[in-house]
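Many introductory courses stop at the sequence. We go one step further.
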Amino acid sequence: MKNIKDYNLDELKEEMLLIGEKGYRAEQIFKWIYVENVTDFNEMTNLSLELREKLKENYTLDIYKIIRKQESSDGTKKYLFDILDGNAIETVLMQYKHGYSICVSSQVGCKMGCKFCASTGIAFIRSLTSGEIAEQILAVQRDIGIKISNVVFMGIGEPLDNFNNVIKAIKIINNPKGLNIGARHISISTSGLVPKIYEIADMDLQCTLSISLHATTNEKRSKMMPINNKYNIEELMKACKYYIEKTNKRISFEYALAKDNNDNLEDAKALVKLLKGMLCHVNLIPINKIENGEFDTSTNENVMKFRDYLNDCGIVATIRRELGDDIEAACGQLRRKEGGNI
């Protein structure tokens, strides 16, 4: 049977017609799923018993099970979810003054092989469906009874490698009759799949685009991120400039600082030269040391000097506030501790 959460509202209306129901029933069901967050079709009490039986016969609600939940000293929560097929993914909830942000996974495993990311050590198994992505939000909201206001696609997997499902999930999450999370509160992070950046630019999604840059030369970036061997910095920058011109939206460049690798003044100067004149923001991330990783965390002094130099040169740069590092929930630390299979 098909997971009913894999349908957007228009598709759900078509499904209702196929099973002999009125199209407006889809809006009622959509509300039960995303507003009321029910876990059983029987809870959809304004639907007839006959329709509820039809739903049970044709669809599933695919409710995730929490295998493990860890809480950081800063309040960040990391969930290991059983996604009902023998695999597991991690999802992180972060609390800020402006509300709750969730970091969702888009794949079981990752193909990108970035050398500073813990997901590198696990094999790619499959991409998540749109409903499986949305269920991460629903599962966390059910668990602690809160409303999530921001979504970042920065968990396990490369979002643009699962392009269609991620875009569909965004439209489900954004729908005002459902979770109603504004597009400007949704951020997609990519290691640099250039063709997909052009596609997103042409779609004008209004979401925030984050580019994992991390180096200013092809030699350094290829050592950190193998994707650079396929789409080098020159191609990536060309796509980013197209995106900015097409959407008039700022790009956030992620730059993970690794000690004695990409964190010195010469690197800062090269980054200014690379980004000068672009509508952008640089998010500096002190790299998190991972098991068997070759990169070490930069010093606080170097991180601040790097930031100050960029700002002095007119490139807006901030240092990301690291949340959840004591439970391995910070940037680059997600990896499915159970090895993916459970």
